[in-house]
Each structure stands twice: as structure tokens, then as C-alpha cells.
Write a structure and sequence with these properties.
Layout (H helix, E strand, L loop, with lengths): L1 E5 L6 E5 L6 E4 L2 H7 L4 E6 L4 E5 L3 E4 L4 E5 L6 E6 L5 E4 L13 E3 L26
Parallel strand pairs: 3-10
Antiparallel strand pairs: 1-2, 2-5, 3-4, 4-9, 6-7, 7-8, 8-9
This protein binds zinc ion (2 copies).
The site of one zinc ion has 9 residues, from loops.
């Protein structure tokens, strides 16, 4: 399926294709908490060639030595993340135009979960990055 998304102010839009078998995770890591201001940030990982920006220019922030987070410089929305090895693009599920189209299937970085945020589902939990992660 072909999915689209945009930031809060709509200056930046993207599209990507996915099969429905991609890994989608709730990330509990400290960096996602900081960049979103929320206890978790849900992502879907797709091959870089399946993703493209269709409007505007996101601003990069090198959040680690091997990954870059891209956000809207006007409204601050975290949109996607790339890795230096160009393995995959992570897209924030909350920015999809159809945000119910992809469901998270795992919890990543559960070791950094905020104590007041309770996980009540039975999805697999990884203390650090899920196997696919950046
Ligand atoms: Zn924006
Ligand atoms: Zn994270």
C-alpha cells in the first residue's frame, strides 16, 4: 500500500510504500522521549528506496553517531529518522495521514520506559533496540 503523511503545519509531506510486514515499534528510548516530549514515539521502518519527500525540506539533527532525526523547522514535528548505513527509514506513525494504517508490533528500549507509563499489551518487549532498529 501507498501511505502519505505530513507535519503539523503541512509544510513537509512524504509518501512511502509498505507491504504491511514492516516492523513497527513503540520506542521508549530517552532520545525519543526528548525529541517528542512524550513517553513513547511509535515508528515504522521501511527501505530507504520506498520513502520520499513530496513537499518541503525537513531539517536534520544528528542524534547519535549513526542516526539522524529529521523534523520540520517551522512546527517542530519529528517526521523520520535515517541511519548512516542507509539501511532503513523510520517514519513516525503519528504523522501519517491515516495513522491507524500501521499498528506497532513490538516495544523497543523497554529498559528506558517511564515508570508511570504502563504497558498493558502482550507485544514483545526488547530492553534495547529491536533487532531491526537503527
Ligand atoms: Zn511543519
Ligand atoms: Zn527511540
Amino acid at each position: 500500500m501507498q501511505l502519505t503523511g505530513a507535519c503539523l503545519c503541512n509544510a513537509i509531506a512524504y509518501e512511502f510504500s509498505c507491504t504491511g510486514n514492516e516492523v513497527a515499534d513503540y520506542c521508549h528510548c530517552r532520545q525519543c522521549q526528548k525529541s517528542s516530549g512524550a513517553p513513547i514515539l511509535p515508528w515504522v521502518q521501511v527501505p530507504p528506496q520506498n520513502f520520499r519527500i513530496t513537499r518541503g525540506h525537513a531539517k536534520p539533527y544528528a542524534s547519535s553517531t549513526h542516526s539522524t532525526r529529521w523534523f520540520c523547522p517551522d512546527c517542530g514535528t519529528p517526521l523520520y529518522m535515517t541511519d548512516h548505513a542507509n539501511r532503513s527509514v523510520g517514519i513516525t506513525l503519528g504523522t501519517l495521514d491515516t495513522p491507524n494504517a500501521v499498528h506497532p508490533t513490538v516495544h523497543g528500549w523497554a529498559s528506558e520506559r517511564l515508570t508511570w507509563f504502563q504497558i498493558t499489551d502482550d507485544l514483545p518487549r526488547y530492553p534495547q533496540a529491536p533487532p531491526y532498529d537503527l
